[in-house]
Amino acid sequence: MNLLVDIGNSRLKWAVETDGRIEVVEALDYRQPRFFSILRERWLAIEPPKKLAIASVSSKQLLTDIMDLRHSLWPELALVLPKSADYAHGVKNSYVEPEKLGVDRWLGLIAAHRHYPGDVCVVDCGTAITLDAMRADGTHLGGLICPGLITMQKALASNTADLTFNARVYRTEPANSTDAAIANGVLMAALGMVEHSVRQFSSSYRLLLTGGDANTLALSLSRPCVVDEKLVLKGLSVFCEGDRLA
Asked: Per-residue pLDDT tens for 77-96?
């Protein structure tokens, strides 16, 4: 059994992988006061894993704290820390400085190449929305980044007088209240970025969504898409197959 950990900008998602099957156990907000005590309790309750694979786009301090927790629980546990590179597992990174591609995006591309053969656009819908295009041969064509749905709403609320942040979801139609108008306007902006970008490629490109807001976008897209909430974890699983241990 392997332990897979995906640390985003606000949450830590962890899963166990057994015989190639990935089961997402929990997603925790790591800003909560009891985060580490809760995580420690959860990990004490599972059988000792063979490997721990971590992807993090959060602070170095949080990663260090997670590593310390791992050492206190399983001192001899093999550690897998994937890093973005020029090439790995059939995927060619297009970045001029390959190491600067977010590791979550890199893992998403690697998982897409493994599990979704063909041309693909990978959209990760979280604190930021990222889009990466990749040909069937694993050639990364580049990507885009824009603020995520909640990020856009919070930015508008914090920079405009008399507006407050409201996380409620509304029907996607012209709104008759300010809160609904903001929520729907933000959603339409995100949809516009995704659909305009995908139109630049041929119809052969499959649209693949992941991240916390993937289902929200998927419901309003005008073209077919696949939602895979385990995509980054599947990328971690690919790295567990090799010998990239720290």
From this structure: 999 999 999 999 999 999 99
What the block records as the tokens of 164 is 């407050």
137 is an active site residue: no
| 3 state DSSP class of 147 | strand
CA distance 84 to 97: 10
Domain 116-234 is classified in which CATH homologous superfamily?
A: ATPase, nucleotide binding domain (3.30.420.40)
Which residue spans of the chain are classified as CATH 3.30.420.40?
2-81, 116-234
| Catalytic residue (one of 19, 29, 65, 104) | 104
193-233 pLDDT, tens digit per residue, is 999 999 888 778 999 999 999 999 999 999 999 999 999 99
| Residue 10 structure tokens | 């606000």
Q: What letter does residue 148 receive in the DSSP assignment?
A: -
Distance (Å, whole) CA 43 – CA 54: 14
